């Protein structure tokens, strides 16, 4: 990676697929006959909070049961060893990057193991269920929701992400379909500010044409091979 100093890596559900966590837009991307797009919205939460809480209770249990795979491990190694700037921007709500040992991780769509109190704004690490309406440990109100960015909500830490993209010499997208904005637009932004762009994915994504190079295959093979 000659002449590369600053790297931004965007990851999506595909990097955790081989850890047993389902992707969103695959054939089997349904949950109890609901499209994910129909449960991951503030409207769905207002309409049927119990349904949405059960969806995330199940996701939380799956996250806790999953283990990082060789793709997470390779990125953690890169993070430890890379002397320049590096930022792993993940759309995933699992903690597999961190459990593999990566430190420079930003969860733009929130975290499955975090609960956010809509009464007092506190955030708490949460491994149990929320569908039984537990009280917030800070204020006692039963007003906890998953700390997740749903459709129509603003993703976290966008200023930091765009600043890192502006400084990046290399932008790498791993295991994401390019169907959801603003993440789907990061490749164009990185190109505009002069970065080389690389896509590692099982199949061509919606934004494939924007990448200087696309390598197709499972992340557990492609990512360690790229990091080597
Ligand atoms: C493998 C593999 C293996 C498989 N190895 N690869 C019209 C036009 C443009 C935008 C909009 C529009 N209408 C509405 C919008 C905005 C909307 C949006 O983008 N909608 C689209 C559907 C069009 N976006 C929003 O609402 C966002 N907010 C927003 O825009 O605010 C405005 C704003 C932005 C910025 C500044 C100021 C204001 C919020 C989006 C929130 C997304 N939330 C979700 C759910 C919550 C998290 C959760 O429950 O987990 O996030 S939706 C879901 O999609 C989840 C994911 O993070 C996200 C992306 O999915 P991802 O990761 O790409 O997964 P898949 O399944 O789609 O793809 C997996 C890929 O992996 C595939 O390509 C496979 O081939 C591959 N793969 N196995 C390698 N082994």
TrEMBL record:
Keyword Metal-binding applies? yes
Chief location category? cytoplasm
Instruction: Name the SUPFAM superfamilies on file.
Output: DHS-like NAD/FAD-binding domain
Q: Catalyzes what?
A: N(6)-acetyl-L-lysyl-[protein] + NAD(+) + H2O = 2''-O-acetyl-ADP-D-ribose + nicotinamide + L-lysyl-[protein]; N(6)-succinyl-L-lysyl-[protein] + NAD(+) + H2O = 2''-O-succinyl-ADP-D-ribose + nicotinamide + L-lysyl-[protein]
Please list the residue ranges annotated as the Deacetylase sirtuin-type domain: 1-228
Q: Which cofactor does it need?
A: Zn(2+)
Gene3D superfamilies on file: SIR2/SIRT2 'Small Domain, TPP-binding domain
UniProt remark on cofactor binding: Binds 1 zinc ion per subunit.
Q: Give the molecular function GO annotations.
A: histone deacetylase activity, NAD-dependent; NAD+ binding; protein-malonyllysine demalonylase activity; protein-succinyllysine desuccinylase activity; zinc ion binding
Q: Does the keyword Zinc apply?
A: yes
Q: Which UniProt keywords apply?
A: Cytoplasm, Metal-binding, NAD, Transferase, Zinc
Q: Which residues bind Zn(2+)?
A: 117, 120, 136, 139
Q: What is its EC number?
A: 2.3.1.286
Its annotated function is as follows: NAD-dependent lysine deacetylase and desuccinylase that specifically removes acetyl and succinyl groups on target proteins. Modulates the activities of several proteins which are inactive in their acylated form.
Q: Per the record, what about its domains?
A: 2 residues (Tyr-56 and Arg-59) present in a large hydrophobic pocket are probably involved in substrate specificity. They are important for desuccinylation activity, but dispensable for deacetylation activity.
What does the sequence similarity comment in the record state about its family?
Answer: Belongs to the sirtuin family. Class III subfamily.
Q: What is the protein's given name?
A: NAD-dependent protein deacylase
């Amino acid at each position: 990676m000659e002449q590369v100093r600053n790297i931004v890596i965007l990851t999506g559900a595909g990097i955790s697929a081989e850890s047993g966590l389902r992707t969103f837009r695959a054939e089997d991307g349904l949950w109890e006959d609901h499209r994910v797009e129909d449960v991951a919205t503030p409207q769905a939460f207002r309409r049927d909070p119990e349904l949405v809480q059960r969806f995330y209770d199940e996701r939380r249990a799956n996250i806790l049961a999953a283990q990082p795979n060789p793709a997470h491990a390779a990125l953690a190694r890169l993070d430890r060893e890379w002397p320049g700037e590096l930022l792993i921007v993940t759309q995933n709500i699992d903690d597999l990057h961190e459990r593999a040992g990566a430190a420079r991780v930003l969860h733009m769509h929130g975290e499955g193991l975090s609960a956010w109190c809509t009464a007092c704004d506190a955030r708490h690490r949460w491994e149990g269920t929320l569908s039984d309406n537990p009280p917030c440990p800070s204020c006692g109100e039963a007003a906890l929701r998953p700390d997740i960015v749903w459709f129509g909500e603003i993703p976290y830490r966008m200023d930091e992400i765009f600043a890192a993209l502006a400084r990046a010499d290399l932008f790498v997208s791993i295991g994401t379909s390019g169907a959801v904005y603003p993440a789907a637009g990061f490749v164009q932004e990185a190109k505009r500010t002069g970065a080389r762009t690389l896509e590692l994915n099982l199949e061509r994504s919606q934004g494939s044409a924007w990448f200087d190079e696309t390598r197709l295959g499972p992340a557990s093979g492609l990512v360690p091979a790229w990091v080597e």
